[in-house]
Specification:
With about 220 residues, the chain is α+β, with helices and mostly antiparallel strands. Helices cover about 55% and strands about 5% of the residues. It has a four-stranded mixed sheet, with helices on one face. Helix 1 packs parallel to helix 3, helix 1 packs across helix 8 and helix 4 crosses helix 8. The longest helix has 16 residues.
Length: about 220
């Protein structure tokens, strides 16, 4: 399989399936496309030949079948590898995990817009200002804290699975912007950061040494 992704420093959507594949030891080939949002760029041309939405991530199976959207990729991996714990085995826990992924998929817009993923940068002073100024951000963080605090330990449903991969980019946002968490939620954040698959993504992001202005609302250079 091939997984097409964007810059590891910035691409929160790409991080989800990459981390899940790595954590589950599913072999795949990584194809990194540098973010370039200009019309007719190599980024768009390459993706347009694979998927009608021309966005990352995209998983292309050995036979050329393409799956896009992170939720669809997680479900495809679960179908393809029923022996692996992509989702919790328990029916009710599985439904809850999917609900949390869907909540992340469609929600937390304020956090995502104000605190974009930028792994190599740290903005605690900006995070403090944003928290003081924006009630919706505080609401988003309170809900995330409640989710993280509910972790069965060390991850949300015991073993690392799709739902934890889904929240890994949120962990990056929280730590890079220095957003406050309760002790229970902070323990979950630490467990996610220490996961080998997440640590490997972070290490790769730190070696990119790239600067994509479209993804940098708080800096004009590195």
């Amino acid at each position: 399989m091939k997984l097409y992704i964007g810059n590891k420093n910035y691409s929160s959507w790409s991080m989800r399936p990459w981390v899940l594949l790595k954590a589950l030891d599913i072999p795949f080939e990584e194809v990194m496309l540098r973010f370039d949002f200009s019309e007719g760029s190599a980024f768009y041309r390459t993706l347009a030949a694979i998927t009608p939405v021309a966005k990352v991530p995209v998983l292309v199976d050995d036979d050329g079948f393409a799956v896009w959207d992170t939720l669809a990729i997680a479900e495809y991996l679960a179908d393809r590898h029923p022996e692996l714990v992509v989702w919790p085995r328990d029916r009710l826990e599985r439904a809850r995990a999917r609900s949390l992924c869907a909540e992340m998929h469609a929600g937390f817009g304020t956090l995502r817009s104000l605190c974009p993923m930028n792994i190599e940068a740290f903005f605690p002073e900006i995070g403090a200002r944003l928290m003081a100024e924006n009630a919706k951000l505080r609401t988003d963080l309170a809900r995330i804290d409640a989710i993280f605090s509910s972790a069965a330990g060390p991850f949300l449903f015991g073993a690392f699975g799709a739902v934890d991969a889904y929240f890994a980019p949120v962990v990056m946002r929280i730590t890079r912007f220095g957003l406050p968490l309760s002790p229970a939620a902070a323990a979950y954040v630490a467990a996610v950061e220490q996961t080998p698959a997440v640590a490997a993504w972070v290490a790769d992001a730190l070696t990119e040494q790239d600067f994509v202005a479209d993804d940098e609302p708080y800096r004009t250079q590195r």
